[in-house]
Amino acid sequence: FSCFSNHKVFILFAAPTCSYQNVLDHLHLTKANETFTMSRPVKDHTNKTVLYLEMIVYAILDVKETDQTFIAYVWIYMEWGNDYILWNKDDFCGISEVIVPTEVLWKPDITIEEMIEKDKAPQSPFLKIHSNGTIEFRNDQIVISACRMHVYKFPFDIQKCNITFKSYLYAEHELQIEIEKNSSVISMWSREIMATEFEWVFVDMTVTNSTVNHYGYNQTIVIYTIEMKRKSVLHVASFVLPILFFLCLDFFSLLLPHGGGEKIGFKTTVLLAVTVLQLILIEILPFTSSKIPLIVVYILGIFGLMLLSLLETIVVNYLIEMDSASQDDAQSVNE
Amino acid sequence: FSCFSNHKVFILFAAPTCSYQNVLDHLHLTKANETFTMSRPVKDHTNKTVLYLEMIVYAILDVKETDQTFIAYVWIYMEWGNDYILWNKDDFCGISEVIVPTEVLWKPDITIEEMIEKDKAPQSPFLKIHSNGTIEFRNDQIVISACRMHVYKFPFDIQKCNITFKSYLYAEHELQIEIEKNSSVISMWSREIMATEFEWVFVDMTVTNSTVNHYGYNQTIVIYTIEMKRKSVLHVASFVLPILFFLCLDFFSLLLPHGGGEKIGFKTTVLLAVTVLQLILIEILPFTSSKIPLIVVYILGIFGLMLLSLLETIVVNYLIEMDSASQDDAQSVNE
Amino acid sequence: FSCFSNHKVFILFAAPTCSYQNVLDHLHLTKANETFTMSRPVKDHTNKTVLYLEMIVYAILDVKETDQTFIAYVWIYMEWGNDYILWNKDDFCGISEVIVPTEVLWKPDITIEEMIEKDKAPQSPFLKIHSNGTIEFRNDQIVISACRMHVYKFPFDIQKCNITFKSYLYAEHELQIEIEKNSSVISMWSREIMATEFEWVFVDMTVTNSTVNHYGYNQTIVIYTIEMKRKSVLHVASFVLPILFFLCLDFFSLLLPHGGGEKIGFKTTVLLAVTVLQLILIEILPFTSSKIPLIVVYILGIFGLMLLSLLETIVVNYLIEMDSASQDDAQSVNE
Amino acid sequence: FSCFSNHKVFILFAAPTCSYQNVLDHLHLTKANETFTMSRPVKDHTNKTVLYLEMIVYAILDVKETDQTFIAYVWIYMEWGNDYILWNKDDFCGISEVIVPTEVLWKPDITIEEMIEKDKAPQSPFLKIHSNGTIEFRNDQIVISACRMHVYKFPFDIQKCNITFKSYLYAEHELQIEIEKNSSVISMWSREIMATEFEWVFVDMTVTNSTVNHYGYNQTIVIYTIEMKRKSVLHVASFVLPILFFLCLDFFSLLLPHGGGEKIGFKTTVLLAVTVLQLILIEILPFTSSKIPLIVVYILGIFGLMLLSLLETIVVNYLIEMDSASQDDAQSVNE
Amino acid sequence: FSCFSNHKVFILFAAPTCSYQNVLDHLHLTKANETFTMSRPVKDHTNKTVLYLEMIVYAILDVKETDQTFIAYVWIYMEWGNDYILWNKDDFCGISEVIVPTEVLWKPDITIEEMIEKDKAPQSPFLKIHSNGTIEFRNDQIVISACRMHVYKFPFDIQKCNITFKSYLYAEHELQIEIEKNSSVISMWSREIMATEFEWVFVDMTVTNSTVNHYGYNQTIVIYTIEMKRKSVLHVASFVLPILFFLCLDFFSLLLPHGGGEKIGFKTTVLLAVTVLQLILIEILPFTSSKIPLIVVYILGIFGLMLLSLLETIVVNYLIEMDSASQDDAQSVNE
Q1: In this complex, do E234 and D300 lie within 8 Å of one another by their Cβ atoms?
Q2: Cβ distance of B234 and A282 shorter than 8 Å
Q3: Where are the transmembrane segments (chains A, B, C, D, E) (predicted)?
């Protein structure tokens, strides 16, 4: 064993002392060294670890009203300190940062509160360590989160969905989460790189951090709120307009002659068409609201109007017939 | 090897003895130390491990009647004792708790009995150990569980779904599961934090623990029962009302003149509309009940009524025709 | 290193020798000891390992006719011997069983032959070892298996699905699978704990074990056969009855007057309704059978009957018209 | 440490030298011995590793025309040589084969070229090593593969799908893949054990191996071609027949009287029914072909025929009316 | 321990020194040697690692307009240098390349920017190392990527989707990505091997590499752009043609007699048919565009035309009736 390790040392010394491995050797950073992974990397336990967090929305992938879920593709940037990592870059030919595998270092247990489907994909395999002890982590993540939708004004609705970052176990005096950039900057950045927005127009994004009491101790949380407006033009073209057209048709049926059955047949057909459109709408809307959405009121209203007008036609027809029958009777009496 | 370890010891001694690592060193808690992972952490095997368990429902994600599954997003809190973990916090500058990776310690093999799709996502990466040997574990989990639904009163039904925690292998005298908070407290907490309730209104949550005999030895189980009421307003607006409207239309067809074919055509059209609505309902309801749900009885009843009234119209039409034909014959005879 | 291990030994000796760890130390059972995992745990290779297997069906989750798959949630119990595990429980204060992590011991490579979607979820994390060398393993598993369905008698069909346990590689003289309980006991147990049965009524479950020759050597297999009857009441209410109703309507159209077009219109409408119902049925039934199911024959028969009656009506109408036209001609000639 | 290993040796020597572990000890086959996993197990690098491969189709699970995927459940058998494994079975009481965990030995990097969804399930946990150095591996696998479908003759089509085995990196002079059994044998075996065939009848299976040049060096590939015929009886019953029925109805409408509107109404209704059937067909067929399938030509043809006949009826009606109008004019002039 | 390793050395020396293991021993390449995995493998940290990247599209699996995702099956080839790997092939009987497990060497952290569902499948298990320090990696991958679709010209649209390779953390001066082959070569290769193209015709593929500034430092990215044309023949056959047919029918209704209700009934039926076709189209098209696609304009236009012509018919009918009524009045007055 010894001859082997001597051999290695020899190779490294023969080379100029500017390899990344030299830094790692100086730090004793190996996969086996448990000091770096077993606990929060502070020399004095009263020291707080400050985590700088930043999130940019790269794509709004899906917003499912029926499932009340919001699916976004986000870029996450995290930065925190590690007391055991420190070197003088001048001792190592100016190496100021080394990129090392993720599993050799402690990572904060940050989770997204609303996330209802955990990301099973492997995370970024590397971390960047800086000579002053700062650790940098970047990751791309699909966030499938629960979001309470308000479909009252559908299809002209604006939705707000939260993405809340928090630690599972660390209290505020151990791990404090800070925001790096303010709301307007991340809004602007997200707007610039947004690749796909699905059915939505990205309106705005705000970020706040606050302290909450979670079962016995305070924790800091960071809440990103994403505001989106629905693109309603195709919904109008496919639901609102056709229904208006059919209402229009129904009104024009006034011009049809009263007596015959064709008016009733025409009105029944139009009523059936509206029923079909109504059923399609109900497939799109969630059954989750306790308040009936405006668009359902709109369709049910038109449906009701047509129904009443159909009933009225039937009654009028009946009365006309009665009348003519009595006239016939009168005539026959007269005769 | 020796120079390296000396070096490390030197660094640690130079720093004040308040690092978390000092506690771990004192406990000999390393990834390689199998005492902590190989068996239940009691010094005397007759000692019982008591597990305090708590669950809060964070979101009701889906209730699929057709699949008889209930999907919830829950927060689980567990706490148990470990005889091998004990330190005097005064010896370590007041450190009373350390957060360590999950894989270095034994964890109870708690499973959810009804869970039909195992959670493939990684669990919380850390555990909190306390100076008195208490271990604290927190996790967020999606529970996809089997739940026998009763759709008899659909859409005015109330469902009760169970989430049962038990150990795979430990008997009651080895692992005993206790409830930390009573039913009313967890009900209240769940109601407060409930983020999304899907199509349901969370009514209540109860928790009981009992002892069952599982193939040879007693085990403690903890049963959480979640009671939910369906939000029925949109179902009424989309199914119950339109069918009533069509029944109404069918009644008004009495006012149509008997003789012509238009009455029969009108009634047939209305019957078709009800058939279409009935088919949509059957897509929503599961074929799992041996009792026909009330709403199906309701629709089949209305369907039957309309059918009978249609048949009656046809027969009456026929009789009138017969009658007039015989009158015509009589007339022609008279003539 | 030495001071550390002395320290540990000291702690353990100070405690009474009743810790589980003492047993493991006695057996030299550690994660690094490859004797326990590298090969079948018999001291003499001519010894057979006998595996006792038991399966209970906890839930029938889905039976997909169109995919020919059967999804069940089962509880599996396995028990086998390990020659390297043996201790006298009196030497260890009466400890007769220890629960250890699964990965430290050899496990038989039992697989389910019909399983078409492998279970990606982690298995039970622990095994129970007994002082006489018996190993006990319990697991809950979702079994997604291929099952040849016979839909000829749909919706009054009874299906039989097999779950076959076998070893990948071990021959019969190495690993023999035995059944612990007989068919009637596991049927009874399954019936008792069955949580959800989906669209089916659990009828019976039988178990047999046999020997098959698999590419060069004999292997024992254990076949569990699950027999289920479909709950047909809702299918009757939604397909069979409405079609009968429409057939009924079609018969009553005999009473409509012959001459006018309304009879043909009425019959065409009823024919369309049956076509729609037929299409829905075809969505439910698989295209997998080479024999046409009875229900399709039933619907096609009724469809054909209606079609013929419609054609007959058209022909009769035509003949009546011809007749009256010739009479008119005759009349006009007479005149 | 030393006392422990002495102890172990003692136990093993006390037992007869017929344990599998003795063979492994002789081979120095341990998890830590990297000779067995780091590189292709040949003593002289110019030696070729010959891999015997065999595949049997156990079930055709799905053939999705719209996705152009073919899903089968196959049994794979592989056998190759390892120069580092060799023992005289007479030295070990006749032990001629040992079953060891998969991860302790090198395995060829065989992949299926068409596979579009990688199998995430764990593979068979064991390999069988023979005393002459042969390694045997068996696995069950779901193959989800891309397959170019030809739907031109739907529903009377025959599809051929390939499953191509190749190595990621090894050239032909390093790893050569050989077929164990010829096409007729595997065809026969597959036909015997086929558990489910979905919508298809398994026709034949052929196997060929060839050499291809892949970016710089030759590789051997083995191509299994599976030929299947669609079961078309239900497709005929549900699409082809009803459309013929409706065409039939349309022809019979010739017998309806010309003048009135009822003929046009009847023909329009039949045309609508065919439109609905056409739309259902388009849901089943993929949009992937650049040639229009025969069945679409068939339906479009019938649709066109009906349309023309409807237009002709309208024109004839118009001409008759014109004629009678001019006759009326002539009459009124005459009068 | 020492006797064992002596033993091994003995075996290896007895064999000719042409085993792959000899090369690995020379390089000290073992799983435990962290020099090869902990950091970028350059001896001088100012050396740039150049990564040659190549991608060929093997299959276009799916293009989902409604989800705005593009799913392709690609072959990726990567090649980079490792300063720690170097041997003289003449010293090792001419061995110029060794294939070793992937996990023993550093791999660049290349990710695909648009990828919205991470590949959970295991990657190719081996890397090829060359005697000059070049590392070769090949992999097959499913890429599920976000792609902004332009459906304005549907179904005659051409889509361009990007696949962008970049490093998570490495700056341009550390890791530079180069393209091996130019656009025309990879286009040609992709066209040759394309197994399935789904609904699309592969048109062209271009590749460019550029430098972007990502949060503080420059990174090289490589963008592959895939251009595809939709196969529109079936869309034309199923949507565009039938709608034209129905428009045609509507025009011919001019020939129907004005007075009766049959003209209105006919026109209403045709209008309903177009409504149904319109709804099906809306299911296919995404609601994601802010501009209404041409095909929707086409259908809405035809729908509007028919509606206007229907209204006009109703009005004309009304006027004719009014006129005849006034004539009747005039007549009766005259009488």
Answers
A1: no
A2: yes
A3: 233-256, 268-288, 295-320
Q: What is the pLDDT of residues C279-327, one digit of tens each?
A: 777 767 766 666 788 888 888 888 888 888 888 888 888 888 888 888 8
Helix, strand, coil shares of chain C as percentages rounded to 5? Answer: 40, 30, 30
Q: End-to-end CA distance of chain A, in Å? A: 133
8 Å CB contact of C215 and D77: yes
Domains and CATH numbers, chain B: 20-230 (2.70.170.10), 234-323 (1.20.58.390)
Query: Which range in C61-70, C201-210, D16-25, D227-236 is most confidently predicted, on average pLDDT?
Result: C201-210
Cis amide bond preceding A16, omega within 30: no
The shortest CB-CB distance from D169 to any of E29, E128, E280 is to E128
pLDDT reported for residue B15: 45
pLDDT at D191 over 70: yes
Residue C111 amino acid letter:
T
In this structure, the dihedral spanned by the alpha carbons of residues E27, E32, E33 and E34, taken in order and rounded to 10 degrees, is 150
CA-to-CA distance for E177 and E41, rounded, in angstroms?
Answer: 16
For A184, other C-beta atoms within 10 Å of its C-beta total 12
Spell B86-125 as b/e; 16+ CB within 10 A means b.
Answer: ebeeeebeebebbbbbeebbbbbbbbbbbbbbbbeeebbb
Phi-psi sector, C272: left (phi>0), alpha (psi -120 to 50), beta: alpha
Q: Which residue has the tokens 């791990």?
A: A175
C155-194 pLDDT, tens digit each? 888 999 999 999 989 999 999 999 977 888 888 888 887 7
Cβ neighbours of C212 (radius 10 Å): 11
Asked if B198 lies within 8 A of A109 by C-beta distance, the reply is no
Out of A47-56, A186-195, B139-148, D313-322, which region has the weakest mean confidence (pLDDT)? A186-195
Q: Name the residue in chain D with its Cα closest to that of C105.
A: D101
Structure tokens at B5: 């370890």
In chain D, residues with a C-beta closer than 8 Å to the C-beta of E253 are 314
- Does the pTM surpass 0.90? The reply is no
Sheet containing strand D49-64, edge to edge, reads D97-101, D126-130, D134-146, D69-81, D49-64, D175-179
Chain B touched by A121 (CB under 8 Å): no
Q: Which of B244, B249, B245, B251 is nearest to B312 (CA)?
A: B251
E118 touches chain A (CB under 8 A): yes
Is E5 a residue whose pLDDT tops 70? no
What is the average pLDDT value for chain A, to the nearest integer? 83
D116: which 2 tokens?
Answer: 């579009």
Chain D: give the shortest CA distance to residue C269, in Å: 8
Helix (H, G, I), strand (E, B) or coil at A22: helix
What residue of E is the nearest CA neighbor of D123?
E122
Q: Identify which has the larger pLDDT, C49 or E142.
A: C49
Q: Can you spell out the DSSP letters for A115-149?
A: B-S---S---SEEEEETTSEEEEEEEEEEEEE---
Is E307 in contact with A249 (Cβ distance < 8 A)? yes
Q: For residue D225, what pLDDT is reported?
A: 94
d(CA D277, CA D288): 20
HSE-CB for A288 with a 13 A CA cutoff: 23
- Residue of B66, B129, B102 whose CA lies nearest to B285: B66
- Cis geometry, peptide bond prior to residue A155 (ω within 30 degrees of 0): yes
B53 touches chain C (CB under 8 A): no
Residue B261 has a pLDDT of 65
Touching subunits of D (3+ CB pairs, under 8 Å) are C, E
Hey, are the CB atoms on D44 and E18 less than 8 Å from each other? yes
B146·C197 Cβ contact <8 A: no
Whether the link from the prior residue into A125 is cis, omega within 30° of 0, is no
Nearest CA in chain C to D71: C116
